[in-house]
Amino acid sequence: MLNAANAVLTNAPKATSGRQLVVIDPLVDGVTGGQSMATQAIGERIVALAQQKYPQFDFVPFTPEAVGRSPYVMVGTFTPVNAQNAPTGEREAFRFCLVMADLRSGKTVAKGVARARMEGVDLTPTSMFRDSPAWTDDPQVKGYINTCQATKVGDPIAPLYLNGILAASIISEATAAYTAGRYRDALDLYTSAHAAQGGDQMRVLNGLYLANWQLGRRSEAATAFGDAVDRGLANNRLGVKLVFRPGSTALDSGTSAITPPYDIWLQQIANRTAQSKACLQVTGNTSKSGSAALNERLSLLRAEYVKARLEDDDAALRGRLIAEGVGSRESLIGTGADDITDALDRRVEFKVVPAC
Q1: Alpha-carbon gap, residue 37 to 347, rounded angstroms
Q2: In a 3-state reduction of DSSP, which class is residue 17?
Q3: What is the pTM of this model?
């Protein structure tokens, strides 16, 4: 990490006068867009490094006020990869990408890349991402990731990311409020982010659900989760953390600090799917621990269980759902930890299919 950060801070253009203002849009996993204790610690170490060795940069919090001053922005990804540097198969190392971009010119001005060993890295999700029930590969988050991974110095910032930079700064503040337990502030900020350009994102809808739930606003939380379902179905990929007991089709209390209200989630998925008149493929996923053949069978049984629950919740779905199990072949994290750090690898995924 220090090698990549030093490369970026050394090669970035300096301000013509005074110190150059810099913000960090919190670093993420390069596949899921999630944040972890590792990505958080890396961001903190970059700031500490700059303060020690690069006084020409003035790092300030990532806020709408700071964005309005057109600073440099740092984005970064920290991703488990295989020997070929791809986020598939057997993960053997982390690929770290760090980019500095100029919001005034809209271009990348410095970049650093490095690889890190797996040992000693804490991938525990930060509280917002630990508690979030739903996932999709949002275009805005892809824009962030592409700004880091798919650019070279001088390339333009991904338009989806650049156009949504204000929303991203509000989301950062909202996530910090949720982490601090300031749920009323978090709700207000997520509401503001949702109204901003580029703010229609799954992490915002998750935030609205979580803040409402923490405030005891059950009806509003259910509606927010339903909106997240709509978002995922419109994106044709909705992953939900329906966590099962090991080797079983019985739902568990999950890995979140909030006991998952599975009944509400399944009811919202059933209702929103019925309203959209969509046909869905329900796909079960497992971690890679255990035999591949057993995992394939277990993932199918779990998908069939969810399919039956949805049909019970809304009879209009009968004949419009199909179940599939893929075992661990579509892992997003892929570390095989089989704990809170790779909970998304044990998700149930919903995709719209063209015919029932």
Answers
A1: 21
A2: coil
A3: 0.96
